[in-house]
Amino acid sequence: MKKIVVVLLTVLVIWNIILSVELFNRPTGDPQININQYNVDGFSTDLTVAAASSMSSIVSVKTENGFGSGVVVIADGQAVYIATNYHVIENASQIKVSLDNFDEFGAAVVGYDIKRDVAVLMIEPGYTVKALNYGDATLLKRGEFVLALGVQNGQELSKTVRLGLISDPKRSIEVNDNSGHYYLDLIESDADLSAGMSGGALINMSGELVGLCTMSQDNQSYALPANELKLIVNDIVISQNVSRYELGIKGYDVANMTNYQKIALGLDLQDVEGIYVSEVITGSLAESIGLKAGDCIMAINGSSITGYDRYLEAIYSFDEDLMISVLRNGVLIELKGAV
């Protein structure tokens, strides 16, 4: 018995010596080490490529009241359209836009949306300017990396990049001001926005525009989702105004809910479409037509609401007559009203 124990101990000692030698002599080019290094290098490369591909579409916006940033969103022949925040150009009599090549142009205000803090400017540089491609903000996930691009305040030719994580891809913020009582659905991230970056771009790792940087508060920054920004810009460019009614609800995309959330809200696990209504503002359009917390909006004026994108499109397209199909306690009902 003792001989067996001695033999086993000897084998274990030899095996440990072999492993120690193997690990000590492992070459620096070991595949595992390369993989770890590749992950770091690859992530860094993704950041630099995304920033470099987008930076030429970021502009400086200067007025007699201060500085801000802007994003080239449409380059249509001679006309170049730039999205920025309304508060950047508010009460300005003169607006100057500086492009990536340092050329400066006087800008005209095409239109604006005060509630969403969006303004659209137009310049005619006489040469090609790159517009930043829109991304799909509804695909953003918590923990996803994003970059905020803008111009440092007072340094119109000094652009900057800030890295952040998505804290919430759709944070509903209640607003009650002179223009009404409504909700703003914004992208929340921890990208640190310095003064002057208002009106800049929030981009994903593919270099696509997913939001328009709007404000910072309590170490968090907020951006208007690109899906809604695109609707606003198109409305302004085509008709110089924004045709949107404030429904007055706080809602969540059912398609993005987990099964646990559906169960907690009393929804069927098979429900994969619609907008779940969590709150209805008193005195709002939603309340006037009979919408209630706990309803699930399935269609607006005959258009199926398959997700938040379709919901936005419906809100930006309906006229004075409104018909909403709602799932309430498992029963589909129709609510009708007029603005």
Describe this structure in words.
This protein has helices at residues 2-24, 31-54, 86-89, 226-239, 259-265, 285-289, 308-315, and strands spanning 58-63, 66-76, 79-84, 95-98, 104-106, 108-113, 118-123, 145-151, 159-177, 180-189, 201-203, 209-217, 220-225, 249-253, 275-280, 296-300, 303-304, 321-328, 331-338. By secondary structure, it is α+β, with helices and mostly antiparallel strands. The protein starts with a helix and ends with a strand. It is globular. The strands form 3 sheets. A 7-stranded antiparallel β-sheet has the order 5-4-1-2-3-7-6. Strands 8-9-10-13-12-11 form a 6-stranded antiparallel beta barrel.
SSE layout:
Layout: H1 2-24, H2 31-54, E1 58-63, E2 66-76, E3 79-84, H3 86-89, E4 95-98, E5 104-106, E6 108-113, E7 118-123, E8 145-151, E9 159-177, E10 180-189, E11 201-203, E12 209-217, E13 220-225, H4 226-239, E14 249-253, H5 259-265, E15 275-280, H6 285-289, E16 296-300, E17 303-304, H7 308-315, E18 321-328, E19 331-338
Antiparallel strand pairs: 1-2, 1-4, 2-3, 3-7, 4-5, 6-7, 8-9, 8-11, 9-10, 10-13, 11-12, 12-13, 14-15, 15-16, 16-17, 16-18, 18-19
